[in-house]
Amino acid sequence: MEFSSDANQRIARLAAHLQPQMEESSILRRADCRAKGGSPGFKVAILGAAGGIGQPLAMLMKMNPLVSVLHLYDVVNSPGVTADLSHMDTGAVVRGFLGQPQLESALTGMDLVIIPAGVPRKPGMTRDDLFNINAGIVKTLCEGVAKCCPNAIVNLISNPVNSTVPIAAEVFKKAGTYDPKRLLGVTTLDVVRANTFVAEVLGLDPREVNVPVVGGHSGVTILPLLSQVKPPSSFTPDETEYLTNRIQNGGTEVVEAKAGAGSATLSMAYAAVKFADACLRGLRGDAGVVECAFVASEVTELPFFATKVRLGRTGAEEVYQLGPLNEYERVGLEKAKEELAGSIQKGIAFIKK
Ligand SMILES: NC(=O)C1=CN([C@@H]2O[C@H](COP(=O)(O)OP(=O)(O)OC[C@H]3O[C@@H](n4cnc5c(N)ncnc54)[C@H](O)[C@@H]3O)[C@@H](O)[C@H]2O)C=CC1
Ligand SMILES: O=C([O-])CC(=O)C(=O)O
């Protein structure tokens, strides 16, 4: 039986859906054309896409209208996650990549790379206890970014963020591709938690609340600036103490509740998508896109620090100053800087050793 060329094209398209994990092929090139024609947008890779964060993050990015192509890379299970998500009737074309030999294909041509690869905490561990395993994972993945998509924006989620961002920066420096504007440590979950907990205390809808959270992403380095909450609000000393502790220990609260089954994944995926969407809106040229992130910074004497940043076509185009702090926050800032300095140095030393 003969098929018309139209029918042949349909069969090829069908095959593309049945083999979403295939790498380079004419079938996928056709899928690319479809993506360009049907759904203009950005190309996004998720590294660690089959994990607890990776899977819901991949689903939410598949639903994001700014995404035309979504690459899902992991060392396990990415074909299954890809096949599953590829059935969603949203615009983005999904492709899976499995294991180190496919890392370069996963990264080539990407505009944004989101990295939640690595091990999570168990009860009793600090984020720094993850350093020995995650530092090497982040190093390898960032070497791939430097080689295959040196102009991509990188959103780094893997813990300890206070050290993995300096590791990534050193990898990019070594490769000669470092642009501080394009490397962002994701601290959005701290802001998401702060908005939620502050809204509870104030009796407001969390969507109406905005709390800047500065410093870093671990314990006392997480510094919520309650004096700068929007809408303007005041807190008693007890409320300030309760809120600061709860925000700083939000991650531990989830680790303990999960009792050995990992750390925050669903709220983190939500936060990661909130941040990635802001990066994509910045890349598109939207004005006034501002989020907190852990970036190269001159706001303090430390080389990296989380503050509000303005996201634009080239990444973090403006890093905002801290603004006025009250006495409680000034004390918190000193504690945060002390711990951060060690974590940053540890990351730098890991690559320079
Ligand atoms: N920045 C933040 O606010 C947060 C960061 N995290 C961190 O995110 C990381 C991931 O957490 P989960 O998704 O819960 O862990 P998970 O263990 O569920 O998933 C991690 C995934 O990374 C993959 N992976 C491991 N080595 C890899 C490599 N070399 N290349 C590619 N993929 C690799 C694993 O196969 C797994 O699928 C952890 O380090 C965790 O501490 C978690 C919550 C919040
Ligand atoms: O606490 C952890 O290990 C995971 C994390 O970074 C968070 O939930 O903020």
From TrEMBL:
Catalytic site residues?
A: H217
Name a GO molecular-function annotation.
L-malate dehydrogenase (NAD+) activity
Q: What Gene Ontology cellular component terms go with this record?
A: chloroplast
Q: What is its EC number?
A: 1.1.1.37
- Say if the entry is tagged with keyword Membrane: no
Q: Which biological process terms from the Gene Ontology are attached to this UniProt entry?
A: malate metabolic process; tricarboxylic acid cycle
Where along the chain is NAD(+) bound?
Answer: G48, A49, A50, G51, G52, I53, G54, D74, N134, I157, S158, N159, M268
Q: What class of enzyme is it?
A: oxidoreductase
The residues that hold substrate are R121, R127, N159, R193
Gene3D superfamilies, alphabetically?
Answer: Lactate dehydrogenase/glycoside hydrolase, family 4, C-terminal, NAD(P)-binding Rossmann-like Domain
Q: Using the record's annotation, list all stretches that form the Lactate/malate dehydrogenase C-terminal domain.
A: 187-350
Q: Does the keyword Cell inner membrane apply?
A: no
The record's section on Pfam families has: Ldh_1_C, Ldh_1_N
Q: Which reaction does it catalyse?
A: (S)-malate + NAD(+) = oxaloacetate + NADH + H(+)
Write the record's keywords in alphabetical order, separated by commas: NAD, Oxidoreductase, Tricarboxylic acid cycle
Domain (Lactate/malate dehydrogenase N-terminal) ranges = 43-185
The record's subunit annotation is: Homodimer.
NCBIfam families reported for this sequence: MDH_euk_gproteo (TIGR01772)
**Family classification:** Belongs to the LDH/MDH superfamily. MDH type 1 family.
Q: What is this protein called?
A: Malate dehydrogenase
Source organism per entry reads Gossypium anomalum
